Amino acid sequence: LQNILALNPRKQTHATLHSTAAKKQVKKQWKRNSDKNCSNCEKLENNFDDIKHTTLSERGALREAMRCLKCADAPCQKSCPTNLDIKSFITSIANKNYYGAAKMILSDNPLGLTCGMVCPTSDLCVGGCNLYATEEGPINIGGLQQFATEVFKTMNIPQIRNPSLPPQEDMPKSYQAKIALLGAGPASLSCASFLARLGYSNITIFEKQEYLGGLSMSEIPQFRLPYDVVNFEAELMKDLGVKVIFSKGLAVDGMTLRTLKEDGYEAVFIGIGLPEPNRDSIFQGLRMEQGFYTSKDFLPLVAMASKPGMCDCHSPLPSIRGTVIVLGAGDTAFDCATSALRCGARRVFVAFRKGFTNIRAVPEEMELAKEEKCEFLPFLSPRKVVLKGEQIVAMEFVRTEQDDDGNWKEDEDQVVRLKADVVISAFGSILSDNKVREAMAPIKFNRWGLPEVDPETMQTSEPWVFAGGDIGGLANTTVESVNDGKQASWYMHRYIQSLYGVAVSTVPELPLFYTPIDLVDISVEMAGLKFPNPFGLASATPATSSSMIRRAFEAGWGFAVTKTFSLDK
């Protein structure tokens, strides 16, 4: 009782005094954030729980949605590669219409949940938010998108064809055209989804691996993008009848563009990504057993061990011990760094050639690595791998400097040697497999060794072949790859219809996302009239002109009650 009474407020009569030594001693009993020396840091080994700060609970999502200004000319929407109607889906969340929000998101982005989790929003929609300069900061758009689509995911509702389309058996012959998509990454999943929504019934994805999702599955860690998220979006696509054939792809079992043409495929989309790592010459001949990995080696091993259901195999995490040096400054490099900690690394250094202001990774990725005590080493260019016997024991670097013209140069007089047990190279990816390049004949390649692609139509030099995602050379993020597939789907549709002499609108008219919920009849009868739903507008400003009532009907309102019209002059 005395201890409880001691907590009651008292009038202060003197300044309070406690020794610094005493305060330091008791600080650990009250401090909630981790100490700088990390003595009480959470152990990360084998911990693949969600680490994103953007993830929201329902309470948090509702509070965040209420902050949105619903800007008339919303800059967030202009910043989104897939052109999501962001203010509308946020309004739906604020009204607790989570299905409506998810429907809006998935209509424009079939991978809406993935993008809600991994989009670099600070460089896209959030970067354009009009609340950016306010004390509360911009709207957490990615978190709201993730919340709405996760709620929809728990509903277990399938996707259905556009209800306005005739039955499949009554569709014109052109919609039975054989379409092939090579690779099952974000670009291909998006393209296949929109083609299926348009009514095409003979769509096949060829994937050389045993899983769907491409880099989303194999290279984005479980703690950022779980397996079940990618699988959920793939299942929505398959709901529309898209077929998937695994262990088959370009240059596998003799598959080429020419053989696909001979097999009757009238249009092909190439979305195979960039499968090979960009490997520096100093690493030639080094193997994983010696302690060297590329990001293309390391991240798939981590994914297969940490993403249950990804494949039939059950492999252990890579055994990483001691000090790890990750080379690179992109998102992939920081994924490697944070994954290495979960594989048992004691310390992780991220070394890169330029300074902090030149880091290509988005701030969100870098901050997560910083919070997990990864160390950053700028202005270092790798020069030599030091081996003892067959094992890596150190890396030698030279310092880099920027001259007056802005060019980066190596200073051979400044050499840095760092001890290391493991080195992970994350210098990007390329298309270097000559068999795959030969399988793409007769399409033309540009000076970067990638297919020549029209940036508007995503067509290659062969009108029947389209390409997007990493291999298209335009997309740098998942959401941009999704938009490549979306864009290609419309122009593939136009191309196929032209083969059958059918004219198609020059303005893209891609169908929306539909589920059985949209078929539920909620019409009502009043005063002998039938209305599509019981939700109406009553007089006042929203119903005082024909144009405003027209807008209301377009937005889904069932009726409008008015008594006075403004005079249209």
UniProtKB/TrEMBL annotation:
**Regions crossing the membrane:** none
- Cite the Dihydroprymidine dehydrogenase domain residue spans from the record: 46-156
Query: Could you name the Gene Ontology cellular component terms for this entry?
Result: cytosol
Every FAD/NAD(P)-binding domain range = 178-479
Q: Any idea what this protein is called?
A: Dihydrothymine dehydrogenase
Q: Its Gene Ontology molecular function terms?
A: dihydropyrimidine dehydrogenase (NADP+) activity; iron-sulfur cluster binding; NADP binding; uracil binding
Q: Name one Pfam family in it.
A: Pyr_redox_2
Species in which this protein is naturally found: Pitta sordida (Hooded pitta)
Keyword list, A-Z:
FAD, Flavoprotein, Oxidoreductase
**Origin organism lineage:** Eukaryota, Metazoa, Chordata, Craniata, Vertebrata
